[in-house]
Design brief:
The complex is a heterodimer. Chain A is built from 16 helices and no strands. By secondary structure, chain A is an all-alpha fold. The chains are: A mainly alpha, B mainly alpha.
């Protein structure tokens, strides 16, 4: 996300260009090429790396789909059209929609404040925004229970007004917003910092209002990075397990999200149904990765030259 | 209105761009509501406990063992990721092979795949009748429902941290340095050990620390494969959940505070490491 390292421009020339002094010296002395290993070592290392990735990443992913369809397509459809499964899917979509929206608004607001102005304590603010990344999901759930739970700090006023947060939708949404808090902001802040403030200053000095500057200058400049952040935020929001598990209460058909539904089915030895729901989330992960790869090339366009 | 609020902040450089007061205020408010206030609730609750009570909870054999399992196995998993992640980066950056772009994209699966899905997939894979477990069973190696299973899950979720941190740094490495070393008579092994490795070392350590930090707090992918035997394969985050379900809020809060403090320390270390990596000329994110 930062400027191109000067050596990146030199590298291709160094490897494909005319022989340098070093290369000539090597060929004269009969040394093997300085920048790579013997073919046997290269092949062995590549095979070890691929075997490691296949074992730890490829096989688990493949297994999800094989297990999901093991009992046939009809069983797969039946598992997904179960009322509890449908309720879990609906809740997951709702929670993701709310938390992604919240994080998009926060991300845009925070990156405007951080990237377009110079102020004291900026790096501390960025660290605090990144903080939820390093908090265990279980701790993230726990802090909301301590605040809003039946023995929590705010238990009395919540009871007085009959507001239910823990073991209900608001708790699940809050926990999800917490764990996805930095996703959009951390994609936007570095890019908007690199882009600088010249275009916004030009727009303002030509008489544009703050809002039209934001919507017509800044937003189009960062649209791919924003989409990238939304993509990652959405994947995490739909898949969050630990934090949501602590605050949800696991009420079937009411407060069960898809990951929690997978857990319940699995613990009831309904492996086929469990993997069927899991395959939907695995599919989401695959689509996210493909979209991410496509977006990364678009993102390079937004980097200031 | 936004500009009027902004003029009160004397700690920022003047700018013609409007909206600082509004956006800065909203950012700070939202940050406090969602992150800072709830986190301070944890410390507030912990500070209500007497020191003796805290000592009793933390010296409980089950608590100590859970913390030991979480930190010990996370360290081991991060070390495995340091070696194999380093190897994967080397192969991805330096060598060409078929479907390289697909392999590169696959690295991010542990980021994108929900932890519960990863958990049930790894458990089934390494169970005694699973694809890999059935091969290991005749050798007397049991993975699922043992601490070894926890290690497998933690390796899975930590791998992308090492790879994605080191990859840009290795790609940026000045190839002329290796030419120079070779032309001065260094063997390939010496060049890698004394030229390449010292350059990517800060990035490798950063990736190691990030993988460790993630593994310590990991819950979803571990609880399925762990077997969760108290004192044998019970991780600290699970013990927090169990204490919470037993309504032993003091225990849950105390363990969570220890874990939160550990993640603050790790965050600080990772920050320092990143500065070090950047000052070495890398571009690590």
């Amino acid at each position: 996300m930062s400027t191109i390292h000067p050596t990146a421009l030199v590298q291709p020339l160094a490897s494909d260009g005319p022989p340098t002094l070093a290369k000539q010296a090597r060929t004269q002395n009969g040394h093997r090429p300085a920048r790579t290993e013997p073919a046997a070592v290269r092949i062995a290392l590549t095979l070890i790396a691929l075997a490691f990735l296949g074992l730890f990443i490829g096989l688990p992913l493949l297994l999800v789909f094989v297990e999901a369809f093991k009992r046939g397509f009809a069983a797969y459809v039946a598992a997904l059209s179960d009322p509890d499964a449908l309720a879990a899917i609906r809740l997951t979509l709702l929670v993701a929609a709310i938390s992604v929206t919240a994080n998009v608004i926060f991300g845009l607001v925070a990156s405007w404040a951080i990237a377009k102005f110079e102020f004291a304590g900026k790096s501390l603010l960025i660290t605090l925004i990144d903080l939820p990344f390093s908090v265990s999901p279980v701790v993230a759930g726990l802090i909301y229970v301590l605040l809003f739970g039946s023995q929590g700090l705010l238990a009395a006023p919540l009871q007085a007004w009959d507001i239910k947060i823990i073991f209900a939708l608001p708790g699940i949404v809050l926990a999800t917003i917490f764990v996805t808090f930095p996703f959009v902001a951390r994609e936007l802040i570095p890019l908007m910092q690199d882009q600088g403030t010249a275009e916004e200053e030009a727009a303002i000095s030509l008489g544009a209002s703050g809002f039209s500057t934001f919507f017509r200058v800044t937003l189009p400049n960062v649209k791919w990075a924003l989409l990238y952040g939304v993509l990652l935020c959405n994947a995490r929001a739909m898949g969050e397990f630990g934090a949501v598990s602590v605050v949800s209460g696991h009420v079937r058909g009411l407060t069960n999200t898809m990951p929690l539904h997978i857990e319940i089915l699995y613990n009831e030895y309904q492996f086929g149904a469990s993997f069927a729901v899991a395959s939907l989330l695995a599919l989401l992960a695959l689509v996210t990765l493909i979209a991410k790869t496509i977006l990364e090339s678009r993102l390079a366009e937004e980097e200031p030259r | 209105m936004a500009t009027a609020t902004a003029s009160r902040f004397t700690f920022r450089k003047p700018s013609v761009i409007p909206g600082f007061g509004l956006t800065f205020g909203l950012t700070l408010t939202w940050l406090c509501l969602i992150v800072l206030l709830p986190l301070s609730a944890l410390f507030l609750k912990t500070s209500e406990l007497s020191f003796d009570r805290l000592m009793v909870i933390m010296s409980n054999a089950r608590t100590l063992h859970a913390l030991q399992i979480s930190f010990g196995l996370s360290l081991a998993a991060a070390a495995i990721n340091l070696v194999f992640g380093g190897l994967v980066v080397w192969v991805l950056v330096r060598y060409d092979f078929p479907f390289k772009r697909v392999v590169d994209a696959v690295i991010d699966i542990p980021f994108a795949l929900p932890t519960a899905v990863a958990g049930i997939a790894l458990t089934t894979l390494y169970a005694e009748n699973g694809w890999i477990g059935s091969l290991l069973a005749p050798l007397g190696v049991q993975v699922s429902f043992t601490p070894l299973g926890i290690l497998v899950a933690l390796v899975f979720i930590g791998l992308p941290f090492v790879v994605r941190t080191v990859q840009p740094v290795l790609a940026d490495l000045d190839a002329e340095l290796e030419d120079a070393a070779a032309s001065l008579g260094a063997t390939r092994g010496q060049t890698i050990w004394r030229v390449v490795l010292p350059t990517i070392w800060p990035a490798l350590l950063t990736g190691f620390a990030m993988a460790f930090a993630r593994a310590v707090g990991e819950y979803g992918s571990v609880i399925f494969i762990a077997g969760n035997l108290p004192g044998v394969s019970e991780i600290a985050p699970l013990l927090i959940v169990i204490r919470l379900e037993e309504f032993r809020y003091a225990d849950a809060t105390a363990i969570a505070s220890v874990m939160l403090l550990a993640s603050f320390v790790l965050l600080f270390i990772i920050n320092r490491l990143q500065h070090w990596a950047e000052s070495r000329g890398g571009r690590g994110r």
